[in-house]
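Take just one protein record:
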Amino acid sequence: MAGDFALSTLRHGGSLPLRERTLWLQRSCRRLLRVLSLQVDASGPRPHAGLLVSNHLSYTDILVLASLMPTVFVAKNEVRHWPVFGWYGRLAGTLFVRRTRRSDVARLAAQMNDVLEGGHLLILFPEGTSSNGRQVLPFKSSLLEPVDRGKHPVFAGCLEYELPDGAVESDVCYWGDMTFFPHLLKLMTRRRIHALVRFAEIRQPAGGRKELARQLHQEVTRLKSAPATHP
């Protein structure tokens, strides 16, 4: 239970092993997906260690990806204070960053490296914001430094949603000037939501952050244009 895990985390001063936190997040997200009637189908090589970069459409992306495998997320600092999701993020060991502060980016790079060296999967949304999903926004390269040395596996992922009784852009995607609770209430009234996740491993990651960002953007865009496959 989430409450039991929270109490255990507090008793240990927030020092529970990261693996235990990521497994808790996976279990919790699977329960939340059932509440939201959100079904997930995934294709391609599913990553379990290294870095996964993905496009970003909604807060539901976190639930979808975390339900598939234990993972640590990188999120903007504002998410720390979001209702529900901020609380889950803090308990699960999410790494928060203030992108506007160069010193904070350097601090986060060191934390990301620790996660990768520990054999965990780290997920980054390099667009820096969520979108309506019409296209993949340009990738920011500032947080790719821990993986531009070729030491860790690198994967690309692409998320898409299907909705039989509404519009994905307004009912699932969370972007622009939308506010959280009205959007969540609308989301919960949908009868069924279908998430499609495609994965691909980057066999030969480009050297240098900017080159790697361009390579990953191209691969996510390619995955987005690939035909949908349903099990």
